[in-house]
Amino acid sequence: MGEEEATIESQFFEFAKLFDSKNRTGETITLWNSDYWMRQAGIIDDRKVTMTDTGIMFNKFSKSEIDFNEWLTFISELCARKGLCEEKVLEQLTNCGIPGQYPVEVPQYRSFFSDYKSKHALVG
């Protein structure tokens, strides 16, 4: 029994319903779900592409959720702005597995600040 091959549309549907499959239809995606998907695919690496970058691009739509065509525009603009190959990005998003198949670590910056010491405290 073979599995169906993933498409960008099927992945969009799955990640749009992430963590709320009872209330979400999969027709629109939130920034958080899109970021989670891009982190699972290895697009967001907190160096070249950050959650700030995606937030700025997503907010151009002035909505909390966008549909598939708007999301494709979002990806296209993000790739152009960050100098990424759009075809490769879409391939990574298509082939990254279903939501939750691979562990995704969303960084918690609080841990950095919880044990932060100023340079004056470190000297002498």
Automatic annotation (TrEMBL):
InterPro entries attached to this UniProt entry: EF-hand-dom_pair (IPR011992), TPP/p25 (IPR008907)
Pfam families cross-referenced by the UniProt entry: p25-alpha
Any GO BP annotation: microtubule polymerization
GO molecular function: tubulin binding
Family statement: Belongs to the TPPP family.
Protein name in the entry: Uncharacterized protein
